[in-house]
């Protein structure tokens, strides 16, 4: 048995990250993981939300799908007057993941908002948003340093994200939509460059899963995250 | 070093589940885990959302905190015209967890909505909602069987949820708010009666964590879930 | 002819008020009038809305029913993005009633918000909110005095509320839902400890009513309010 | 002591009702009570809301103030995305009052919506909406009979509304804004042509009031309502 | 071939402007163009939106139709929780048109909001809003000068608006609804007293149109605008 | 005097249209006009809105800017719970323009929605949306014919849009943002392949303009539209 697109079970889809895809954002990239395409833009503001300690900064994320990113058109959030609950869940995950990458004291009283807009969705959009969002964030931080606004780069470590799952009883890395939609177990894992876990979300869609299966999926994700890390290093030359 | 309330590191807070706390819902309970109090109500409707296959049923959950469930009053969602993104995230978790407990074909064309309203929040409200929500769901299913509406109880297995975390480098079970608010790592784990995982969510709040630490937290949760399972069995006599 | 539950026509349902039902609110109680259960919480903030004269305080109320408080589940306000117009009407009544109890100059620049959340509704939820809301308000004021924040208790007088109605041409006190739903006339009356009226709302549901009938209903309410006053005095020891 | 505008204490402001002020509505009028101006339009639809028994009709009301109806401009509801709670309260009162005027079985499966839009507000807008709304409703019903859509006029009785209040310890009829804004007690009373009460709302704004005071205010309203009834009869020739 | 109401092709409907129709607004009028009736109110506030340069003022407009202004009742914006997109488009046009009439430096740090509420709509409501809105704006500016708040009248020039269209291949001025609803081309034109264009909007409803046809429609509008200007001069005595 | 980017006054910015930029939409393209980038997607549904005559189809458009499409980040519509009024205005223009291109009877009972999402905005986004939207629409129609769903291509004629304006008293074609933001007059013109006008919108931003100036701007637009038409023909091979 092989995968629909001929990949090995522990193989990522082809990944392309185009930095500075748009020109106004302080940092941006277009990340493509197979057919999944996410535009990630980092915007810097000179203020922070009220809950942030004095002198510290803040990092947050927003996530949205364009109406025709998927096989069927979805109505825009604004036409339903509700942020999609799925988007709410995802942007909280992306925000937590990217916040972990930044030393808030070095960032100072700035807010960086990472907008992740899915132009095309074919599975793995939340982890692509983490991986691409880190590139946009990192480019924005560098610009702040180069402009003399920050004394030091506030990035503490790299952040990448990838999914793994069990399909037809077979654990596999980086599910595309056709696999994801019939997965028995689905797990997303965000890691730093040491392979430590920042966020972990696992769901038994069709059945429960054992602690051993869970560990196997984390191992697959660790492999994928190492490869994504190398792509980030290449792009960011850091 | 001991915990603030004298508990052992692998000890649950006292748990009380009062079944049928309110009388109109098909199933209900008030679950108290220490000072956390959640009212869980299961409501049955004779219709299903459009995406459900013909002949099958559906289970969904809603989660909300009363305005003064916490140390500070929060404005109601309706006064902000936005479902709290945190509530959106939690009710998706509770819904997935409880859906996993039900055989949708045995449920037939009914929707069961589990409303989890937090009267008082002192940490662990999402997992209390899962554990209490299962009791409400289970009581409602029994009523459907007793009323002759269902031929067979659609409950496939028990579902319980509990959290664990690392505080001051010490892994511990069932964090209360004073622990949760300074936890380095926080992990929620929903399991069935075989100790298999249904949902897993781990977050490095203050630092990343290793796969070994993650496994230790899952082991703590497994112990807590076994104890919660016994309390559910007692209440439900099944 | 007697009432469904054997009560005399001028008899209240059994009333229980549990003070301090939740622990974070500055004042709280659970009020039960027969099967009606309302959780009332008073929250104090150190600011007032813009329309309040300098140096004075403010008291306001919010009212909501949990989705399964009634025989049928209702969708949450947030899922309809509209405050229920009935809730809007009721919380204005509760707010006016409780504001009348407080000397705003003695309260100083604080806002007290009384949240009335109906856990179970079996008729008379708005007047139970007034009666229970007063207990929560009074407990919160006492706490402000005990904490030295206020020099003097700002409570000017007690406030209680009860309904009466005409069912099958028979005037009766404190309608439960089964009576309320077929009442010809329905009247709510909020009074102080002198038996003076603070709020009066009467509606001819099935037919118009005479001034004499209206006076008879106010007399019934006066009796009920006297009894509720005694229960408040007992609880509050004032 | 006399009133600001020289009126006797039991005297209405000058009332003008211009029927058919706009031409598309099935019934309409502009009602002016002193400087208060409300445009009332009745619209007929061939359907009823789901809760209405088969074969019966429905009457409902909507109330709104134009942004500059008052001394200060108010933001529109839509710019706040919230129906003003005061409008919610008032339109429920107007709706109940006008529903009481109609035999729903004679109306058949039609909904009549009475839109009451305040062009200028100088006190008494809710009762002017009731009095003017009845004229619009009555004209619409007549049109339905004339068009052969209804066999019989469904109007059961006339409905008028007026306010009274206590200002500087003096009971007086039909408060204008300068009186209303400093009234100690404010009472609205909706009656039929027999002088029976349909809706009664009394509020102690500055102080509580006795049952005797309340009766005196109802007597004043009864006088005012008789005069309004005569104006309606004149306009409607019925 | 003549027009339904006997008008010549280049003839306006009868226009009546009643200044000071309501008394609280700083400036107001009721404008009637045939059966179209719009209430225009100008409200002055002592503040400006953030984007306005220091020392300068701002003029903005809001437009809305009453629910029964038209042949069929429309739901209110607030009941749909959405500003009608048509209203959004129109109020932007009215705002731009009236802003062009005012010297913002002479206005100083004031905002004038022109509320245009359509009481009855029979075609041409947006241009009637411009023409009537200018009268309300102008009256409000005069009041500011008379009150000594402004040193000098900030009105730079008159503003009028009118529509023209092609119906059955015949260009004609000032379409009423019965013409507008079957027009092939519809063009709105806002001009100053020199006959210069401030706003121009043309739409090919049924077919595209040539530059020559477009010029002919502008010429018709210029004639109508000259006549509206004379009516404004008469009313405003300026 | 020359333009900032060296263009002649009657010269378009470089235009690139990438058809099929995303793969799920029935038709799509990315249009770039200088630095303006708009993703246009056409989605087909097998139903029509209620106002459409039986047997006929419908074409509509939605327009939105990504949060960081511009020099400053804008909050998303959903976070303000309001469709931007500017977006409302634009999507009505785009919808009318593209509807004019289609024979609704040949389209049959299908709705085609054109989503125009601005990835980067540097002036002219609304006319780029029309020009790119036509390509997406046309590709979708072709697919419907190729799939045998439609017997005949419902496209009646080409549609292109471009802006012109007067900057420093100089008429010029296709304003970029740095020109647009200080334009005295701004005019958008949508045309078919015969050079006939479908939509025309002109605004005197800084001053009014004469009919002659307006004609000159239409002539400039006509030149630009001819060139855009050639690019569309090239892409669409029709």
TrEMBL record, chains A, B, C, D, E, F:
<dbReference type="InterPro" id="IPR001247">
    <property type="entry name" value="ExoRNase_PH_dom1"/>
</dbReference>
<keyword id="KW-0820">tRNA-binding</keyword>
<dbReference type="InterPro" id="IPR036345">
    <property type="entry name" value="ExoRNase_PH_dom2_sf"/>
</dbReference>
<feature type="domain" description="Exoribonuclease phosphorolytic">
    <location>
        <begin position="11"/>
        <end position="140"/>
    </location>
</feature>
<dbReference type="InterPro" id="IPR002381">
    <property type="entry name" value="RNase_PH_bac-type"/>
</dbReference>
<comment type="function">
    <text>Phosphorolytic 3'-5' exoribonuclease that plays an important role in tRNA 3'-end maturation. Removes nucleotide residues following the 3'-CCA terminus of tRNAs; can also add nucleotides to the ends of RNA molecules by using nucleoside diphosphates as substrates, but this may not be physiologically important. Probably plays a role in initiation of 16S rRNA degradation (leading to ribosome degradation) during starvation.</text>
</comment>
<keyword id="KW-0548">Nucleotidyltransferase</keyword>
<dbReference type="InterPro" id="IPR050080">
    <property type="entry name" value="RNase_PH"/>
</dbReference>
<keyword id="KW-0698">rRNA processing</keyword>
<dbReference type="GO" id="GO:0009022">
    <property type="term" value="F:tRNA nucleotidyltransferase activity"/>
</dbReference>
<dbReference type="InterPro" id="IPR027408">
    <property type="entry name" value="PNPase/RNase_PH_dom_sf"/>
</dbReference>
<dbReference type="InterPro" id="IPR018336">
    <property type="entry name" value="RNase_PH_CS"/>
</dbReference>
<keyword id="KW-0808">Transferase</keyword>
<dbReference type="Pfam" id="PF03725">
    <property type="entry name" value="RNase_PH_C"/>
</dbReference>
<feature type="domain" description="Exoribonuclease phosphorolytic">
    <location>
        <begin position="157"/>
        <end position="218"/>
    </location>
</feature>
<feature type="binding site">
    <location>
        <begin position="124"/>
        <end position="126"/>
    </location>
    <ligand>
        <name>phosphate</name>
    </ligand>
</feature>
<comment type="similarity">
    <text>Belongs to the RNase PH family.</text>
</comment>
<keyword id="KW-0694">RNA-binding</keyword>
<dbReference type="Pfam" id="PF01138">
    <property type="entry name" value="RNase_PH"/>
</dbReference>
<dbReference type="InterPro" id="IPR015847">
    <property type="entry name" value="ExoRNase_PH_dom2"/>
</dbReference>
<comment type="subunit">
    <text>Homohexameric ring arranged as a trimer of dimers.</text>
</comment>
<dbReference type="InterPro" id="IPR020568">
    <property type="entry name" value="Ribosomal_Su5_D2-typ_SF"/>
</dbReference>
<feature type="binding site">
    <location>
        <position position="86"/>
    </location>
    <ligand>
        <name>phosphate</name>
    </ligand>
</feature>
<keyword id="KW-0819">tRNA processing</keyword>
<protein>
    <recommendedName>
        <fullName>Ribonuclease PH</fullName>
        <ecNumber>2.7.7.56</ecNumber>
    </recommendedName>
</protein>
């Amino acid at each position: 048995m092989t995968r629909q697109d001929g990949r090995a079970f522990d193989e990522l889809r082809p990944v392309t990250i185009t930095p500075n895809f748009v020109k106004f954002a302080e940092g941006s990239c277009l990340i493509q993981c197979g057919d999944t395409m996410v535009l990630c833009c980092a915007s810097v503001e000179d203020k922070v939300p009220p809950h942030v300690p004095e002198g510290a900064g803040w990092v947050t994320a927003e996530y949205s799908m364009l109406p025709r990113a998927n096989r069927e058109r979805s109505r825009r959030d604004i036409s339903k007057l509700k942020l999609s609950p799925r988007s709410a869940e995802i942007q909280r995950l992306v925000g937590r993941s990217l916040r972990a990458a930044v030393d808030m004291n070095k960032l100072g009283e700035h807010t960086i908002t990472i907008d992740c807009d899915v132009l095309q969705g074919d599975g793995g959009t939340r982890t692509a948003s983490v991986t691409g969002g880190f590139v946009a964030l990192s480019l924005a931080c560098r610009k702040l340093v180069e402009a003399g606004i920050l004394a030091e780069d506030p990035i503490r470590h790299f952040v990448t994200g990838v999914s793994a799952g069990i399909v037809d009883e077979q654990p596999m890395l980086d599910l595309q939509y056709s696999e994801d939609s019939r997965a028995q177990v689905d797990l997303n894992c965000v890691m730093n460059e040491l392979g430590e876990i920042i966020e972990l979300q696992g769901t038994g869609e069709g059945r429960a899963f054992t602690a051993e299966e869970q560990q196997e999926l984390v191992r697959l994700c660790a492999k994928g995250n190492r490869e994504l890390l190398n792509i980030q290093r290449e792009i960011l030359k850091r």
